[in-house]
Design brief:
This protein is α/β, with parallel strands linked by helices. The chain contains nine helices and 14 strands. Strand 5, helix 5 and strand 6 form a beta-alpha-beta unit. Helix 4 packs parallel to helix 5, helix 5 packs antiparallel against helix 9 and helix 7 packs across helix 9. The relative contact order is 0.16.
Length: 322
């Protein structure tokens, strides 16, 4: 399996997690001084003055993009056309048009593009998928997801809509990936809805409610907000049971328990061991780069549908607010 010679586009805190799971050859940042300090702190041998210079480095065959969300599309496209495999911190991009351009660039460059979603491929999703398909507790009726992240500090891109800020773009990839892996998102007749008052700093969506409704009657609802504590919970409601996964964004912190309550009388817990998400992600990316067949929610073919729905939901919320 070929090694990943990885370059970082962005000297960010989130990129530090990749450093624990892979050898990083080079880094570039908007501030070259910060890039040098970052490289020194993390033992990265090469510092490039610009992102373009990093993409021109012949020793690099893959890049990790961890900029503000509105810059993901531009640098994913440029990296792919430069012949580099691309890992992009979620969200991959912000609109359906942008993801179509990334798809074209990946094909032109002959490279793999991956959206880094920390929850992608967690084992509990397979267990819930089996419940949805086999119906041991009857049909799935609805999914309720609650997510909350800490208030972004002044200067953070999440406070600025023009940079892709707001809670929905921060939470949507996790929510949609979970639905895609458990219920499926291929139905073209799914009905989307988005609602927000857009009353956060600089007009961002500080609180957002999103929903999907399938023709068969099932509904999935996301309630997301910035606040003072972390929340990442799913509740799957079947005809004869409820299935709850709490703290699904903390797979490295310890065992993840899937709580199954059947008709409010019987309870069982299915435990899933802690995993190192970034090590697993990079292993799957190496498999893709090697050309081996793999089905994984992080790969571009799966991410395209998520971005299309995310765009539809966000535009619906904006249209209701106008």
């Amino acid at each position: 399996m070929p090694p990943l010679e990885l370059g970082l586009i962005g000297a960010t805190a989130i990129a530090q997690r990749v450093l624990c799971a892979s050898q990083v050859r080079a880094v570039a940042a908007s501030d070259p001084v910060r890039a040098k300090e970052y490289a020194s702190a993390h033992g990265i041998p090469v510092v490039h003055e610009t992102y373009s210079a990093l993409l021109a480095d012949p020793e690099i065959n893959a890049v990790y993009v961890s900029l503000h969300s509105s810059a993901h599309h531009r640098w994913a496209v440029r990296a792919a056309l430069a012949g580099k495999h691309v890992i992009v911190e979620k969200p991959l991009c912000l609109t359906a048009n942008e993801v179509a351009e990334i798809e074209y660039a990946a094909a032109e460059g002959g490279v793999q593009v991956v959206e880094a979603v920390a929850s992608a491929g967690q084992e509990w999703q397979e267990a819930v998928r089996a419940m949805v398909v086999d119906e041991p507790y009857g049909r799935l009726q609805r999914v309720e997801t609650a997510m909350a992240f800490a208030d972004p500090v002044d200067g953070n891109y999440r406070r600025y809509p023009e940079l892709g800020g707001g809670i929905f773009f921060d939470a949507a990839s996790y929510w949609l990936e979970a639905l895609q892996s458990t219920i499926g998102l291929d139905d073209d007749d799914v009905v989307v809805e988005g609602r927000s008052d857009f009353e956060g700093p600089h007009g961002i969506d500080y609180v957002f409610r999103a929903s999907l409704r399938w023709p068969g009657g099932a509904e999935a609802v996301l309630t997301a907000r910035f606040g003072d504590r972390h929340v990442s919970d799913h509740l799957f409601v079947f005809e004869r049971a409820t299935v709850k996964m709490r703290n699904f964004l903390r797979p490295m912190a310890g065992t993840l328990p899937l709580n199954v309550v059947v008709q409010e009388t019987r309870r069982r817990v299915i435990a899933f061991p802690a995993v190192s998400y970034y090590e697993r992600q990079l292993s799957r990316i190496r498999t893709l780069v090697a050309g081996d067949p793999i089905s994984w929610p992080g790969q571009l073919s799966a991410a395209i549908r998520r971005i299309e729905l995310m765009d539809d939901i966000y535009r619906d919320a904006r249209s209701r607010h106008e």
